[in-house]
């Protein structure tokens, strides 16, 4: 019947979408990524950055991609239970989805940095869209991807997200891209925190594993599943408030309709 055909088309388009969301930057072995060892609480080796990354006033030359869903600068971390931001702790951290991920049986954690090519063009366009009037040009992009990674002890789950670091001149940005995020009973945390928590951000709803799947349809930049942050901490980011629109998308007859739920403001400094 017509109904079953349209249902099949819908299911087909949903399954295509779930393979690789359009917001994802290139990743995986086809993109030439370096792949982390499959390990419950493992990390990359130290990654020397091809350009220094400015994170709220601190300039980093190296980074680690930790399998449990987050980036650290000074040392690798095997912590599988996130602490809550703001922690007023002693490290800078960028958490795409800090929780007990485990890719021994399922999923790939990988990363790559770029200093030329289409990825820079795309990053330049994305940042100028999200942060108009900066006349920004990306000169370096770092992409870390957790693709279809299982949670510890929940070996049939698949969770996909990316953390993209972008810099040019003395501007720096973080994009978080969320695909399918499986429900979990483990503690979770998404956002970033700094030494002594002078700057931090927690993505709304991201501390509840039961509602974590909503990361795929929320945004601060009108792009479902994408969050964008300016993180250099330079003078420009102290000029007033950045108004952000937090959208959720509602399911109705298998179609996603945008619904404006909230408008959030935060002081971008
Ligand atoms: C924007 O940046 C480019 C290259 O950095 C520069 O050539 C151009 O003059 C800038 N435009 C404005 C309006 O500042
Ligand atoms: C963090 O706070 C402690 C205690 O107030 C202080 O001693 C330390 O210098 C601060 N660290 C940084 C990097 O500001
Ligand atoms: C977590 O999310 C679920 C589903 O949205 C909700 O029922 C539950 O009350 C939430 N728990 C907390 C502690 O916020
Ligand atoms: C970039 O850094 C220079 C000094 O290194 C400073 O004068 C300038 O204000 C900075 N620009 C921004 C946008 O932070
Ligand atoms: C968000 O997306 C997920 C997965 O598509 C869906 O199950 C959920 O109902 C959505 N939540 C909202 C609030 O739209
Ligand atoms: Ca783990």
Automatic annotation (TrEMBL):
One of its GO terms (biological process) is cell-matrix adhesion. It holds the Pfam family NIDO. Residues 96-234 form the NIDO domain. Keywords: Signal. Residues 1-22 form the signal peptide. InterPro entries: Alpha-tectorin (IPR052749), NIDO_dom (IPR003886). PANTHER family: ALPHA-TECTORIN-RELATED (PTHR46160), PROTEIN PRY2-RELATED (PTHR46160:SF9). This is NIDO domain-containing protein. It comes from Cyprinus carpio.
